[in-house]
Design a protein that fits this description.
Blueprint lengths: L1 H14 L4 E3 L2 E2 L10 H4 L1 H6 L7 E3 L2 E2 L5 H12 L5 H22 L9 E6 L2 H4 L8 H7 L2 E5 L5 H8 L9 H13 L5 E7 L3 H16 L4 E6 L6 H19 L1
Parallel strand pairs: 1-3, 2-4, 5-6, 5-7, 7-8
Helix pairs in contact: 4-5, 8-9, 9-10
Amino acid sequence: MAIKSYVGHALYLAQQGVSLLFAPQVISISHKEYTCPSLLGLPDLLRQYVPPSTEIFAPVLDARKGERALALCYRRLGKTFAPGSIVRQAWNQAHKAQLAWEQSLWLPNDNSQELKVLLLGPRYLTDDPFLSGNIIHRLEGLGMRVYTAAQVRGGRMSPQSRTAEKRLFWSNARQSVGALEHFVDQVNGVVSLAPFGCGAESFVVALVERRARNQGLPSLTVNLDEHTSTLGMMTRLEAFCDLLERKESG
């Protein structure tokens, strides 16, 4: 689903005469972890679709050996366009801005009486109103307060995800399990988003469902595909929220 959208955007830009597309090969964003398998081959996939007149600029971004290795990838990328001194200054400014943005998402302790739902899934789904069917807005419209993995302080997710039986080598799996462990005593239910046909995410969803069940936490899995109608999703969300309300009222 997300790959189709990505390719569709790339084709549209190429048809508009764009001569250079920035499509990095994102191998890893964290130490000893991998991103989605589809991302690993994304530049090669794009080359099969865009015309030869559109060049694909695909630097490798790989943090498997740690943050310093990832910073080196970015600096190497920058030196393609500017001298090293300017690149280092730009990298430091960008890194600070990224950290400030991530910290702005971190959630303080919330003692409100609203029913709370943890929304898990790949960021390209949870953060995109179109691809997700605007699910955050719809849950809020049903009276739910919605939390996501992005609202957890990054350093807290890795230790909490280690309660799994083995190390999680997909970054999204670690983030989802870590967020679940972090919010387990603060939320009333869990909603997992998964793109239809994604093998990797099917494993993550099964892991989240099992851990939520072991904690006595109701969970709902929403598989998304290319259908633009949200009627079926809304029916399931309404039923799930009704279940949470009945469970809370005793």
